[in-house]
């Protein structure tokens, strides 16, 4: 096919450039329409009184944020809950995933079985997972029945504020640790063996090899996994909705749960958007911190 | 036939077809009707049947019934409204009534329905319309006015060797006291619990359905009709204390954090509505139903309600109103009565309703369902309902521990919801 005039006059480099843009166009159009657009809209909505039901929209500048910080008694609670959830979930998840990754990359019999075992929760539906755990974590049934048989009087896991938070964190860790484990496994399998072998020859203990040789090489992977896990932990919603519905006494109501409630139960889209802006800020800051750390710790990345 | 003539006739035929098709397309109206009902339910089959009958009468109108799960219903419909793609008509549950009526998104059905002699609008009692009217305007027609009832497992009563609710009613001794003492006797004598909350949802889901019948049974309420908080009146506190005692002292009511199912035989009694009876069709135990126990001021029947509405900005408003009138005319209300206890006096007075449910004998249908509808008070509603729920739930959670201070919690609930009720 003969190229039409404007294209014929282009230099080779320009044509390359155009081709490149055309290739990324579908992705970019999608990004602008369905990611950037809504994000910008959230910022606009957060300065409005916006009732989804009646359709009334009124600009109110920063009144939503004012209410959030000064009057809303639930907001500080859900903010602390979100941070608590992330604070415990991320280190637990990453340490466990790393330990499993290191163990399950050894060449030993039965590894396939264990890999499958730890990965299975990842592909289990959240609904089934949450419902089964609700049965296991009953006041006097399930796990507590087992505990009772060895003389331990277990708590009413999902109905006492402290243990409820603990329960949703642990069950979430078990649910998602398999995914991080697989990422670590593939990173570990790709590490060059020479350094470890050299260290072994030099008489380093296995513990020294792990701390001085293996972990530093894994640093870039650990940081990426951490970013994903932090963001994921701030977005946990269905798991909590199904296990505790935010209770007892809002002990497990996290920020995203509260955003959902304001938007789709109260229909106050303006206030929900203001809350979403806060969540956006938290995720942005958390990611930026980790990005800075990434530059500092992953010495072999460049 | 020459080629020319043949070609001409083809052209005319096509032209004719095209004209008739466009003419039809212009007049064709498709009504979209949202409801919360299982897609494979006999209820939906009946609605589809009525839709087809309406199409037979009005060939240019078709109806699409669009089932949405109850938990998502309000948010889904709201999003459709916000996205300028509103359904033409649908259902609304009592709790949401005031916020939807006051938001101005519902069409006034009054002029169309009141003006028609055939429709007989006066057949709906004033009490049944309370939530759905504002002055002369009518924003919804209740199609389901379902009293709260006690469902019970007769086998467990027999196992404990105590009289069933039916026998207690016969002795005129079916009160909230005997309700609690029966529950206690059962938990002491069997492996089952005495009472389960409505749909086992007291601690994590819709707690109103369990609280309101008991609050009102004791002469209390959540809030009054003129929006005064009533959680902390002596009557309400006594009711909350009563529930607390059953859970933590008698240990006869399923406690928080325990998964037990009445419908699987795990508890002897539960509160519920007529629609729950279908879940007992294949039950492995003998069961029956009773009205709510007699309260401090005699019978205090409580009904849940849902209404049909037409949305204001749907493009086929007049047709939708006409179809709503069709669905809620006497003859069709009688057909719907098999599933949805009606609000039409004429249907309630007829034999249709008491023979409508094959799982329930006619005499029980009369005393437990029909008699209760007449005097039943609808569950509370408020334009601020979701916000009220948001602040009430965590406070109630503090009630569901063994050493809770009931009065203190009731007071703090009122402190929190009074500003919302006055908004």
Supply the CATH class of the domain at 83-251 in chain A.
Answer: Mainly Alpha
Uncertain segments of chain B = none
**Secondary-structure content class of chain B:** alpha/beta
Helix content class of chain A: over 70%
Class from helix and strand fractions of chain A: mainly alpha
- So what's the overall shape of chain A? flat
The number of helical elements of chain B comes to 18
How many helices of chain A does DSSP assign?
Answer: 13
Question: Any chance you could write out the topology, listing elements then pairs?
Answer:
The complex is a heterodimer of chains A (about 300) and B (about 425).
Chain A: H1 5-8, H2 12-45, E1 48-50, E2 57-59, H3 63-70, H4 74-104, H5 111-123, H6 126-136, H7 143-149, H8 161-189, H9 194-201, H10 206-234, H11 238-243, H12 255-264, H13 269-297
Chain B: H1 3-27, E1 29-35, H2 42-57, E2 61-67, H3 70-82, E3 89-93, H4 94-102, H5 110-114, H6 126-129, E4 133-134, E5 137-138, E6 141-147, E7 149-153, H7 154-160, H8 165-170, H9 176-189, E8 193-196, H10 208-217, H11 234-249, E9 267-272, E10 287-291, E11 302-310, H12 317-327, H13 330-336, H14 345-349, H15 351-354, H16 362-375, E12 377-378, H17 385-399, H18 406-421
Parallel strand pairs in B: 1-2, 1-3, 8-9, 11-12
Antiparallel strand pairs in B: 3-11, 4-5, 6-11, 7-9, 7-10
Helix pairs in contact in B: 7-9, 10-11, 17-18
